[in-house]
Structure formats: C-alpha cells, structure tokens
What does this fold into?
Amino acid sequence: MLITDPDVGDFETFRPEAGFAYAFGLTYADHIAETGQETPEKPIIFRKNVKPTTGQKAVVAPDVMSIIETIERIEPGLAEMVQDKSNLLSSLLDYEIELGIQVLEDCANEQITRSQELPKIGYFLANDVTSRAVQVFGELVEDRLPLWSASKSFDDFFPCGDTLWVPPATSREHLPDVTLELTVNGEVRQKEPTSNLIYTPRKLLELAATTVQDRTLKAGDLIITGTPAGVAFQVAQIMKIMSEVAPGMSILDAVLSYGRKEKAYLRPGDIVEMRAGWLGGYSFAVS
It folds into this structure.
C-alpha cells in the first residue's frame, strides 16, 4: 500500500545530524536486470561513511591521487596494481537517485519485527553518488563491500533534499507514492515510482538492524533504499567489452578505458536535477 495524500503526515526541515547511513543495493527489479543479476534473497547492504548535506551546490569528482589513496587504504594488497593503472584511472562518477529514510527514535530489531507499530521515521530525497572506479577494484578482492562503501563515501558524495516527510504512526508501514526522477543536463536518466521498490519499510529497517552489532538502529540513522534503473554503470555493456577484449589488453584495462570514454558518467560542468513529487527536489553541479 502507498500513501497518496501527503497531508496525513507532517513536513519538517531535514536536519542531517545523522548517525550511520545504511545503503541498500539491488532493490528495484529493472535495476537488478540492468546489472545482469538475479533478484537476490536479500539486498546488498553497506555503510555510506559520509555525512549527508542539504543545500549542496556541487559534487567534486575525486582526482586520480585520491582514488589511488582510497583503494590502497582499504586494500593495501592492490597498491601495485592500482599504481600500474594510474594512467587509465578516472573517477567514473555516477549518480543514484534514492528514497531515503531517517530513523527518528531508537529501535531494536526485535521491536521492528514484533511490534505492531513501526518506530517513528521520516522520508527524504537522496543521491548515492559513487566513484565506479573504486567499486570496480572491489571486484578483484574476496570481500568487495569495503571498497563498495569507499566508492560512495568521498567528501560531498551524499547530497540530499531539505524536506523530511514524517508519516503518522498508522501509516509507517507504507511508502510515499512519489516518482523518483533524475536528469543530467535536462536529459532524463532515471524515472521510476517508489511503488516498484521490492522491500517494505519494515523489511528495510529490519535488514539494516541485523547489520549492527547490538541489532539496534539509533535515532538519526539513515537508510538509503536503493536506486532505480538508468545509472551510468551499465553491466551489460561492461560484459560486452569484456567479451571483446583486444589481444594484449587485460579485462581491467578494457573496463577502465571504456569508462573514460563513456559519456553517461558525470563530468565537470554537468547539472544533475532530481525530483520526487511532494518530497521536493534539488540540483547540483559537478566540478
């Protein structure tokens, strides 16, 4: 069930004095399809270790040195390889419009799963900005999630809207009925209703809580619920490139070289605009 009338809840100014941010992946069927994967038993969950910012006017693409330092800090064993590929590296800056949830009171996993009424929450509009270059290197190690997290945790990689919509207690089980839409320089890249989100608010809270040692979410914690289809990082195209690697070129070289040429990635001067119905909208420039 969806909430179609925003007047049943309260509009507040989003105050991003957040604790932890739990980022979800693979939560929309069309996005799962564009990654070339099957619908998983449960979504990927990782930390986004950067504070959200409202009113942010620009996102800065990390330079090659920042990318190298980040990868080496997380995975020292990749240091030699990363240095060797420095001439091919670029940020491969990608956008991910998402519905965000802020937890407004402490809640233990047991409360979430057994209580008839969910804890107090609010909804906001977020963008899970990502450096796909860092993420790609995550595919070379056994545990990819630390580099996935790092790829989304550069400074200013968490721009968000300034509206927080808080549903009444009786409607916390339901998502706001809005359509997420993202454009780059006026071109629509992502557009999908929240009704296509695979998981309910209760399930998202429950899954996030299971990743915490004491299985308790704290007031201020954030959940970004995953992105719809249409991101720049298109796995189908990557797979095609990998199948056509030129003699003498490694698969990694081919992927990085393709990324530098792919026009869908964000570049300095691009204007990213997002809208989510009555949750509002915002925009930022890439620099």
